[in-house]
């Protein structure tokens, strides 16, 4: 009888302990538009009670190459991360984007006026990501160029920097440009 428990313990506990040793805490998922998303196994294992099968292989395949690519729209429909990040079980994929996606200052090279710096910290303190992305700004490097004339006409930064919502693009140049 006591050997039966020993066999059960070896068959159940030993594989779990051995498997847990090779799990990398952080998995980096490349996202072209925003930069890499860093997933923490430790945070998620704590949340689901160390229940690996709740995600593997039901939502995510352990073999990374077998996982399909999902868009944010797919996730909002409950696929991939959205299976749990639905606003009920965990924060929604529609919430604060910076919880998963990196934000940083963006420097636009402007040869004649000094480089212009966009501060995500300042803007996300006032607005949600969806107010600019993807309508006004596509979250992709090199996809958001505009002249000062175009901005004065309401394009790009000029969508908000119009004198009503925020100062105009034609005043306080040093606020954005390195002078």
Overall description:
- With 179 residues, the protein is an alpha+beta fold.
- It folds into two domains: 23-95, Cytochrome C3, CATH 3.90.10; 106-175, Cytochrome C3.
- It is 24% helix and 8% strand.
- The protein has a two-stranded antiparallel ribbon. Strands 3-4 form a two-stranded antiparallel sheet.
- A hairpin with a 7-residue loop joins strand 3 and strand 4 (116-118).
- The radius of gyration is 23 Å and the shape is elongated.
Describe the structure in brief:
This is Putative multiheme cytochrome c. By secondary structure, this protein is of the alpha+beta class.
Shape: elongated
Total count of strands: 4
Number of domains: 2
Evaluate the radius of gyration: 23 Å
CATH superfamily of the largest domain, please? Cytochrome C3
| Helix count, DSSP H or I runs of 4 or more residues | 5
| The top level CATH class name of the largest domain | Alpha Beta
Let me know the average pLDDT.
Answer: 84
Helix content: 10-25%
What fold name stands as the CATH topology of the largest domain? Cytochrome C3
| CATH architecture identity of the largest domain | Alpha-Beta Complex
Residue fraction in strands: 5-15%
The stretches of 5 or more residues where confidence is low (pLDDT under 50) are 12-18
Main sheet, how many strands, which sense, barrel?
2 strands, antiparallel
Structure class: alpha+beta
Side-by-side strand order of the widest sheet: 1-2
């Amino acid at each position: 009888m006591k050997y039966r428990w020993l066999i059960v313990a070896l068959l159940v506990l030993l594989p779990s302990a051995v498997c847990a040793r090779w799990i990398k805490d952080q998995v980096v998922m490349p996202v072209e538009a925003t930069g890499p998303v860093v997933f923490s196994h430790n945070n998620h294992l704590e949340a689901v009670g160390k229940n690996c099968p709740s995600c593997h292989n039901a939502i995510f395949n352990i073999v990374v190459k077998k996982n399909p690519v999902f868009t944010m729209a797919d996730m909002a429909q409950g696929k991939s991360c959205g299976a749990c990040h639905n606003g009920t079980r965990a924060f929604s994929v529609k919430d604060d984007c910076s919880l998963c996606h990196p934000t940083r200052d963006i420097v636009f090279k402007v040869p004649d006026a000094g480089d212009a710096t966009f501060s995500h910290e300042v803007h996300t303190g006032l607005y949600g990501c969806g107010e600019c992305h993807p309508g006004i700004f596509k979250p992709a490097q090199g996809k958001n160029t505009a002249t000062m004339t175009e901005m004065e006409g309401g394009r790009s930064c000029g969508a908000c920097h119009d004198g009503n919502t925020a100062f105009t693009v034609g005043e306080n140049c040093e606020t954005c440009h390195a002078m």
